[in-house]
Design goal:
This protein is an alpha+beta fold and 95 residues long. 16% of the residues lie in helices and 42% in strands. The protein is elongated. Pathway: Amine and polyamine degradation; putrescine degradation; N-acetylputrescine from putrescine: step 1/1.
Length: 95
């Protein structure tokens, strides 16, 4: 699935979002470009490991789940790790 990557700054923090291109809405008909999910992350540094990517928040709207959008966002995020030479990506699930 082709994705649009939207980068923006909010409150002094750099943020990135991914949106599907040419996507058909599960609600019927073609979907306009809209944000249906996001991954909020930042880079940090550990003196023993090196540069880390920390995934702060991850969300896909309920009606768009099960369509592979979350998987695509995580795949794009792994490419961010590789291109920025991060040694590790970290995600903690709380529940």
């Amino acid at each position: 699935m082709d994705m649009i990557v939207a980068k923006f700054i909010e409150g002094g923090e750099k943020k990135t979002t991914h949106m599907p291109k040419n996507y058909t809405s599960p609600l019927g008909g073609p979907a306009e470009h809209c944000i249906v999910g996001f991954a909020m992350y930042y880079f940090t540094y550990d003196p023993w490991i090196g540069k880390l990517l920390y995934l702060e928040d991850f969300y896909v709207m309920a009606e768009y789940r099960g369509l592979g959008i979350g998987s695509e966002i995580l795949k794009n995020l792994s490419q961010v790790c590789i291109s920025d030479k991060s040694k590790q990506a970290e995600l903690r699930a709380h529940g």
